[in-house]
Design goal:
Strand content: 5-15%
Number of strands: 2
Strand order of the largest sheet: 1-2
Structural class: alpha+beta
Number of domains: 1
Distance between the termini: 31 Å
Helix content: 25-40%
Radius of gyration: 13 Å
Shape: flat
Length: 81
C-alpha cells in the first residue's frame, strides 16, 4: 500500500474475525493514494459489509466511483445523485 497511488475504497466489517478491522485501518493509513476512503460496518463479519447495510455500502461505492471517475461514471439506476 505504501506505493499505491490508485484510488482505493476500503470497506471493512468491524466484527471481521478473519481479517481484523485494525488491518483495514492500517492499510488505509499506509496507502499513499491521494483519493482514498475507509468505511467500516459495525457488527459485520468478513465479507458481510454489504449484507449489514446495503444502502450505506452502495452509497459509498457510488459516491466514490462518481468522485474518481467524474463524468465518465454512470450511476446505476435507482441510486441517488
Amino acid at each position: 500500500m505504501a506505493r499505491c497511488d490508485t484510488p482505493v475504497l476500503f470497506l471493512h466489517g468491524e466484527d471481521d474475525r478473519f481479517v481484523p478491522c485494525a488491518m483495514g485501518r492500517e492499510n488505509c493509513a499506509c496507502c499513499r493514494a491521494a483519493d482514498k476512503a475507509l468505511l467500516t460496518f459495525p457488527a459485520a463479519g468478513h465479507g458481510m459489509s454489504y449484507m449489514a447495510d446495503r444502502e450505506r455500502y452502495l452509497a459509498a461505492v457510488t459516491d466514490f466511483l462518481g468522485r474518481v471517475l467524474g463524468e465518465k461514471y454512470q450511476r446505476p439506476m435507482g441510486t441517488k445523485k
